[in-house]
From TrEMBL, chains A, B:
The protein's name in its UniProt record: LacI family DNA-binding transcriptional regulator
Organism of this sequence: Sphingomonas baiyangensis
GO MF, one example: transcription cis-regulatory region binding
UniProt KW keywords: DNA-binding, Transcription, Transcription regulation
Pfam family, one: LacI
Statement: the UniProt record of this protein carries the keyword NADP: no
Domain of life: Bacteria
SUPFAM superfamilies: lambda repressor-like DNA-binding domains (SSF47413), Periplasmic binding protein-like I (SSF53822)
Length: 348, 348
DNA sequence: AAAAGCATAGACAGCGTTGTCATAACAAGC
DNA sequence: GCTTGTTATGACAACGCTGTCTATGCTTTT
């Protein structure tokens, strides 16, 4: 079916322009512009006339024209490569909430793999006319990307980066300390054989969490059995696979610490497949406090990571840099050990 | 810290323009424009010169200028009010994938509540300069919204709408038939006391699923006990609450059918709290095949709803309407009953 | 060899806005 | 009443691009 002569109304054409409002209100376009940009020196009476005319014509400023003349796009890109929908939505919501009253809009850039984005981000940003980038893990950890953007003086902010703190703005938590706390919790419960399920080796957050795990073991003078180190990809499925391998081993660990909740949930599923009681026979701990940690049974002991808040603050940092050229250094937000039902004293 | 005199590079100013490319390539701006818009009548040699110059200057067409002169924004809005992150991400990914090679960009509009958006969508669309809207459930079911947009001839497409098929384009599945199939499955397993956990009463998908449930019972001449109807809000937490009420009742049902997976997972958690074996003592069924249905133990029997594909097709329909004024009527995609481990024969 | 046709290229206006600069209105100070 | 200063308003160019129209070559046809 085809529309005949009637035009569609999504287009910009046909909409009232600043000239129409000026004409109807008996003022000039410049005055209308002043009103819509809250510039001073407009008499209240004039302002009202303009506003009335605008309302009558259903006038909305044309963003394209505004962007063109100002040389700004008011577009910010959120780049992420993350297998966990919960995490992604938290990120988006945080950024959107911060952007809500600003004139900026958020563009999504889901990336297949962080590796093949290396060195391409600046080009993409330029092509889309972005004014700033938010790099979610692990994109903020790519050295080439950070170097490229810094070199070009292109505004960006990294969320939860783990590479050595450069001068670039970032918002995150202390992954090492958090992993250390979780490990201490397991040690305090009497666990000695603790398996660690790594996340994607390309995500440096994984390296940090593993480091924290090792530090805590070292504190208590426990020699870690490398056989208890297994690797996943941060996805639920990879957690299931890791869990199956771990529980099939001759000497089973009494606790498993997974580098994120999705994998911990996978490990939990593998435990159930094998008929293991959690936390009776094996304790399982995660990391992130994502929705999935509350959905499974028993609910997972985890690290509460303020993803939403990190994204919100990161967006604020980026905005400050774009709008006022303020350069905020690295920000660390607080994390919290959340003890729930999946961990219990070791009995062996 | 403040940047001194060096300018930030996110802005559009300072970037190469079409005039620069024309000058460097020894052509006119119109020819450069032709090259970048794949217009005919440009000699290969000229094209190459232009492209080389563009590459050398790192030229990218200014979207704002392009939008302005064309009277188009190339912006599409995705409106959703959905408590399930998995669903939302599927929706986004479907839309983004379809948009990938088009010049359009997607803007996100998470809505607090569909009700208070009623009658405001057109204004928001106009204010943001959108060319089209994708309405995810339940926004596509608001009569006032649909009426307003249709009236204004504003391009939009609804995902999984359930209201009486108007002439407006929509992509969805047959919720009634799907719920009927699931109910038959439970009946075939010998269940007779089946509780139904409703979703948000404001989401008409809920009404449809309940209707399908009732139809299947009627087919088998089973009088449904209204006490077995409980209500949630499509969230995991509301499912937990409903499950607790259901299992606290004097005569427990042998099966529970929840209107979505999140609630079914909640019911499952409530069952575990009470020490009930699933599916031994009670079968639980969900709807959606969202990630959560695979994460819990036992994995949930559910209806596989192609959310990603629905969003992708809906975007295609919208694009066709915007670009070529093609008007596609309602499209129904296939669903599938996915029998997993949470349902088993009734034994009583 | 002239005319006609087509492929190729450029000049220029205009899209809807904001910035700059000029001007008008009005109050205050002498 | 005349200057001065401040407040309020408007004329006009410019932002970077595409659409329209016109001009220039180069073939082909007569």
């Amino acid at each position: 079916m085809q529309f005949t002569d009637v035009e569609e109304r999504g287009r910009t054409r046909g909409r009232a322009t600043i000239t129409d409002v000026a004409a109807l209100s008996g003022t000039s376009i410049k005055t209308v512009s002043r009103v819509f940009n809250d510039e001073p020196f407009v008499r209240p009476a004039t302002r009202k006339r303009v506003l009335d005319a605008a309302a009558q014509l259903d006038y909305h400023p044309n963003m394209a024209a505004r962007s063109l003349v100002r040389g700004r796009s008011f577009l910010i890109g959120l780049f992420y490569e993350n297998p966990s929908p919960n995490y992604v939505v938290d990120l988006q919501t945080g950024a959107l909430d911060r952007l809500h009253d600003e004139r900026f809009q958020l563009l999504l850039f889901p990336c297949e793999s962080a590796a093949n984005m290396s060195g391409r981000l600046l080009g993409i940003a330029r092509a889309s006319g972005l004014e700033g980038l938010i790099l979610a893990p692990p994109l903020g950890d790519d050295a080439a990307t950070v170097e490229e953007l810094t070199q070009a003086r292109f505004p960006f902010v990294r969320i939860a980066p783990t590479t050595a703190p450069t001068a670039s703005p970032a918002v995150g938590i202390d992954d090492i300390a958090a992993a250390r706390e979780m490990t201490r919790h397991l040690l305090d419960l009497g666990h000695r054989r603790i398996a660690f399920v790594q996340g994607d080796p390309n995500h440096p957050s994984n390296t940090q969490r593993l480091a924290g795990f090792r530090e805590a073991l070292a504190e208590r003078r426990i020699v870690h059995d490398e056989a208890l180190l297994d690797g996943g990809l941060y996805t639920f499925e990879s957690g299931v696979a890791a869990g199956r391998r771990i529980f099939a081993a001759a000497t089973r660990p009494t606790a498993v610490f997974a580098a994120n909740d999705d994998m911990a949930a996978g490990v939990l599923l593998a435990a159930k497949e094998r008929g293991l009681d959690v936390p009776g026979q094996v304790s399982i701990a995660g990391f992130d406090d994502s929705l999935i940690s509350r959905v499974v049974w028993p609910q997972l002991t985890t690290i509460c990571q303020p993803t939403y808040e990190m994204a919100k603050q990161a967006t604020g940092v980026l905005l400050a840099r774009i709008e006022r050229r303020e350069f905020t250094a690295e920000t660390r937000l607080a994390h919290r050990l959340l003890i729930r039902a999946s961990t219990a004293p070791a009995r062996n």
